[in-house]
Amino acid sequence: MQAVKRILVVIDPSQEEQVALNRASLIAGFIECELHLLVCENREDYSDLLARLRVEQDAKGIRCSVTQDWHHNATDTICRAVAREGCDLVIKQHRPDNPLRKALLTPDDWKLLRYCPAPVLMVKNSDSWIKGSVVAAVDVGNHDDQHHVLHDTIVSHAADIVEMIDGDLHLVSAHPAPMLSAADPAFQLKDSIAAEYRARAEPYVKLYGIDAQRLHIDEGPADTLVPQVANRIGASVTIIGTVGRKGIAGALIGNTAEVVLDQVNSDILVLKPEDTLAHLEALLEK
C-alpha cells in the first residue's frame, strides 16, 4: 500500500454518504497520497458536488483533484481515468445487482474487476476498519513464480492495512479434496494435504506473526471457503488476487474474485500480477 501515490475514487452522485470516499480518506491520510474524484456521468452537471467534496478533503490536509467524464460506459470511463491520471488504486462502492439482471448481463463491477489496469477496492459498507480483521486469501498450493509474487503482494498489502487500522491479519488458503489416485502420497489423505498446505504457508506465518487461530487452511473451493471465513470472523476487508490468462483471453480473470465479491460482507481488495496490469494498460492504448 505504501507504493500507492494516487487513488481514483468513484463518486456516486445518487448516494448521500460517499462510503468509497470515506475509505479513500482513511488510506490517503495514513500513506500520504493524493485523491482524484471521478463522477461517471454525462446527463447532469455535478461540478458543485465535486467542488464541495474537494474542499472537504483539502480541510483534512489531503490533496485532491476532480473530474466528471463519460466514455461509452462506467467501466471504460474509470479505466481511462486510471491511465490518464496515473492512479495506482481504484476505490468504488459496490452495490449488488438484481439477481435477474445479473443472470442476463455481466454486472458492471465484475467488468471493472476484469478490465481495470489497477488494483480495485470495492467498498461494501460504511463500517469502520479500525481494529478490524483483514483476510489475505492465497493459494499456497500453487507456487509458480507468478502466483508466488502475487501471494507475497496480497499478504504484504494485508499487513500494511493491519498496521494502518491496528487490526488482525488472517491467512486463508483452500486445499483440494484427497484423491487416492494422486501420484504424491501427501495428496491422498485430507490430514496430509492440510499439513502440506500449512508447511507452505509457514513463511508467511513466521514473517507476519500469524498465530494458529488466524491461519485458516481447509478443504473446499476458494470461492466458498474465503467468504465463510471472512463472514465468520467479521472481517473488515478481504484481499484476493487473480492471475489473468494470456493471448486473446488475457483481459479476463478467473471468476473467484467475482463470486467472492457478492458473498463476503466485508470490503474486498482485488489485486493482479504486474504483467496482467501491463496487458490491460496496453489494451487501453489501442
TrEMBL record:
Classification via Pfam families: Usp
Name this polypeptide is given: Universal stress protein UspA
GO CC field: cytoplasm
Keywords, ordered alphabetically: Cytoplasm
UniProt key word Cytoplasm: yes
PANTHER family named among the record's database cross-references: UNIVERSAL STRESS PROTEIN E
Taxonomic source organism: Halopseudomonas pachastrellae
Predominant subcellular localization, coarse grouping: cytoplasm
Free-text function comment from the UniProt entry: Required for resistance to DNA-damaging agents.
Matching InterPro entries: Universal_stress_UspA (IPR006015), UspA (IPR006016)
Domain UspA, residue spans: 5-124, 154-272
Recorded superkingdom: Bacteria
Keyword Cytoplasm annotated: yes
